[in-house]
Amino acid sequence: MATEAKKAWKSHLILIPFSLLMIYPVIWWIGASFKSTSELSLPTIWPKQWMWENYTEGWTFSSQYTFTTFFANTLMMEFWNVLGGVLTAALVGYGFARLNFKFRNFWFAVLMMTLMLPAQVTVVPQYILYNKLGFVDSYIPLILPHFFGGGAFFIFLVIQFIRGIPRELDEAAQIDGASVYGIFFRITMPLIKPALYTVAIFTFLWSWDDFFSQLLYLSSVEKFTVGLGLRMFIDQFEVQWGQLLAMSLLSVLPSAIIFFLAQKHFVEGIATTGIKG
Amino acid sequence: MFAKQSRIKHQHNIAGYVFISPWLIGFLLLTLWPILQSLYLSFTQYSLLDSPTWIGSQNYENIFQKDRLFVKSLAVTFTFVLFAVPIKLFFSLMVAMLLNRDIKGMSFYRTLIYFPSLIGGSIAVAALWRNMFGLDGYINHVLGWFGIEGIGWISNPNTALGTLVLLSAWQFGSTMVIFLAGLKQIPKDLYESASVDGAGVLRKFWNITLPMLSPVMFFNLVLGIINAFQMFTSAFVITAGGPANATYMYVLFLYEKAFKQFQMGYASALAWILLLIIAVFTIINFVVSKYWVHYESEGRG
């Protein structure tokens, strides 16, 4: 017992300084977002003079559009992305995990290969395609892929999850005369909710950070996402660092809130897919 | 009874394709067709305005024989992969082992340590990094306490790439969580019987942890390399490829060719070269894995 307690102390002794080291830049960031330019480079954490204006002035830095527009745009896009991602992952995941159809193994192998495919190979022709259809400078190129299985990773996650559910439930329902569609909606869907939460969370986080596509497809300021708004901020002639850090901090706030609310799904989600890959 | 039994095993050809149709349509239209088209485009000259003109292997010849930026960006990217991937793997394994203990407050530590990875890929952190590593930035002031005179880490060609490697190491979270899940699957009795045999910490790590963890290590290595080759946002925002092209990553080069200079054919050729490089690395990984990845044939499935 004594050695156990001693071991625990040793762990704390390493873990406390290490986690502080990891989180330190974030804490510094919070403090710096309230600092004036002259104080910014000082290694102190909290400012002598609190600059709340960093937030109010940063929010409205561009005379035409404020961050209200950028946040509203991003949240609107996220709503569709999450909806599409969850629906597709559930449907396709069920198809692969439970139904026996011709060439299933072939298509599954293809799905796994797309997991490793670098996005750059498809980006040029995709851009040309969307350009021809007149969809450039709209949210369609950003949203559409989520409805068409764009997240192969998420499909894989749901497949793995369904494989862990006993088949007996399906079979019992089948004997009672339920069709595969009935089984999917009434039995599988409720059971895979935890996996779908994970899909929703990661779809949200990853599309929030998917700067490359946003940069590519959105060009008019009124349609900008938060990421593009920040980029515009950085490209200004003279960057107001305090304001920029304040706005940057706000831009990661939605992800942070989701992370703290849904920590359990996080670790489980990564573990389910990661470990069995 | 028999009729119903056979219905259970029945093939669901139509239903199967109905369920996978969203992905299948997406795959055919948004992945397969673009891949084939980009292969075709890589043999053409195309600026979006006119229709593509077939120029044979001219793009590839120019890339390999004349384009200095290609060589430079490839060298930068290889350097980045060479450092970022092993550092991240090593770091995440160490942290995972540190966190694989049953002590009070562990979930609190895990949250603190994971948090930077959550936000690490965003443009916001790129802005933070640019500020912290600037000439008059936070890092130099801390170094000042120790009497070390700092430099402009991001504006110096010798250190700029290093700051990006460091940023990528700071975002080790998901790799670490996968290691952690793998560690938790190793049966505890293996360690106990090794202790009985008098094995020390290092021998246990070498003879039990590493072999048992090798499938997870393999997974992380394959995906880590693939992701590192595609690094874009931080190079674009923090350094914009500079100074003196010291951080001119391959994907940044591709992006500028395609969407700044609108040389779609040339960019497609670059994309195919990247695809082949990644494919070669992945195949090598799979071949070499036979010699070091141990899959358990018995027990836990």
UniProtKB/TrEMBL annotation, chain A:
Keyword annotations: Cell membrane, Membrane, Transmembrane, Transmembrane helix, Transport
Main location group: membrane
Domain ABC transmembrane type-1 as annotated: residue spans: 71-262
GO cellular component: plasma membrane
Domain of life: Bacteria
Pfam family, one: BPD_transp_1
Cell compartments where the protein resides: Cell membrane
Transmembrane segments: 12-31, 79-97, 106-130, 142-162, 183-208, 241-262
Example of a GO biological process term: transmembrane transport
Mode of membrane association: Multi-pass membrane protein
UniProt cross-references to InterPro entries, sorted A to Z: MetI-like, MetI-like_sf
CDD domains: TM_PBP2
Family: Belongs to the binding-protein-dependent transport system permease family.
Name assigned to this protein: ABC transporter permease
Lineage: Bacteria, Bacillati, Bacillota, Bacilli, Bacillales
TrEMBL record, chain B:
Positions of transmembrane segments: 14-36, 74-99, 111-129, 160-183, 204-226, 232-255, 267-288
A Gene Ontology BP annotation from the UniProt entry: transmembrane transport
Pfam families: BPD_transp_1
GO CC, alphabetical: plasma membrane
InterPro entries reported for this sequence: ABC_transporter_permease, MetI-like, MetI-like_sf
Membrane topology field: Multi-pass membrane protein
The ABC transmembrane type-1 domain, residue ranges: 74-285
Predominant cellular place of this UniProt entry's protein: membrane
Compartment annotation: Cell membrane
UniProt keyword list: Cell membrane, Membrane, Transmembrane, Transmembrane helix, Transport
Transmembrane helix is among the record's keywords: yes
Family: Belongs to the binding-protein-dependent transport system permease family.
Protein name, entry field: Sugar ABC transporter permease
